[in-house]
Amino acid sequence: MRSWRLSLLALLGLGLASCAETTKIDAAGDIHAFLIAIRDGDKQGFNAHVDRPALKEQIRARLMASAAKRGDRDGEIAALGVVLARPLLDSVSDALIQPDVFRAVAEYFGYSADTPIPNSFVIASGLRRIDDATVCAAKKKDSPCILVFRNEQGTWRLVGFEGDTKMLKGPKI
To answer: Which first-to-last residue range defines the signal peptide (predicted)?
Structure first.
């Protein structure tokens, strides 16, 4: 009787682990397409895998928090500056959500223009499952997440950038 219970628990654990892996493998296919769009400078392919409103809001909030933190010593004046800077931060956020800008992030992960992008199973092994509809990519297994993707109606889209904002660099003019 006891071995039956242990077997059932082991099977249940295996099923849960399998579910987590299935989520990561499912996400990896779209993340692969996202990386190819970045490599090729394909705006349409890039936009298909980005939740622009969510990412824009997240980047804008990070930029506003950073600006408020830098001006914290001036209190009310800093708060007013952040409010007045909102339209500028909206423009900056829009400008940052481009394949050329995210190329530096892809290169940080080791995906340069001359490096083949690995298949979905390799990408899946580098993902961390947050919940049933969210995964993140980190450079190493125990390092912080950099990119956050969410399953939105069957397509995994970039919804968050948790890396250093200095990584988001536009093309050199």
So the answer is: 1-20
